[in-house]
Amino acid sequence: MLNLVLFGPPGAGKGTQAEFLIKSFGLDHLSTGDLLRSEFAAGTKLGLEAKSFMEKGELVPDSVVIGMIKSKLENSTGSKGFIFDGFPRTVDQAKALDDLLNENNTPISGMLSLEVDKQELINRLLNRGKDSGRADDQNQSIIENRINVYNEKTLPLIQYYKPQNKHFGIKGMGSVEDIAGRLKSVVEGL
Question: Which of 25, 153, 178, 181 is the one with CA 20 to 30 A from 18?
């Protein structure tokens, strides 16, 4: 089973490249945001538990998110693998995900880290903001703060996966096709 963590700062192109990887390798997309929304809509125990935290403005505990991921994995029999998008975001989450996947002998195959210059990220997000209308993509100071939070809180995951030889830095600059080609080359080598 091929399990990939798609990683990179806001604006790195994770969504675009996730679609390419899904089509190229027949993987299932596991986005924690989508998972939370579907669990809410289905009214599951975990969905209601997560909703209670979110309604209070609190973060959904890792244990609840891991429970949702476990449920998704159990209900995806016959899957060739998963692309984890938006999770893990911390080393504790990565450890919890590893524990879950190792229970099923389906460990993370690799962390694909899209590397993009800060100014390029800002430009991409500002352009996306013009097209999408997303307020958080229209204000440069908010964008810079999101990038800084990523660098402080999420970037340390690289140091978690590197000693396991699972970190693969991929140049996220250039055309969508060029980036996809670099990703495909790495994944084929796993």
Answer: 153
Question: Can you give the three-state secondary structure of 5-33, one letter per residue?
Answer: EEECCCCCCHHHHHHHHHHHHCCEEEEHH
Nearest partner of 64 among 78, 54, 75, judged by Cα: 54
Mean pLDDT computed over 161-174: 96
- pLDDT tens digits, 38-52: 888 888 888 888 878
Between CA 17 and CA 21, with CA 20 as vertex, the angle to 5 degrees is: 90
Distances (CA, A) of 98 to 5, 66, 93, 110: 11, 10, 9, 12
Residues 12, 113 contacting (CB under 8 angstroms): no
CB atoms under 10 Å from CB of 15, counted, come to: 12
Q: Which residues contact 62 (CB under 8 A, 6 or more apart)?
A: 90, 92, 93, 96
Q: Is the pLDDT of residue 111 over 90?
A: yes
Q: Residue type for 66, please?
A: I
The three-point CA angle 103-154-53 to 5° equals 70
Helix (H) or strand (E) holding 3: strand 2-7
* CB of 22 closer than 8 Å to CB of 80: no
Tens of pLDDT, residue by residue over 55-106, are: 776 767 888 888 888 888 888 878 899 999 878 988 999 999 999 999 888 9
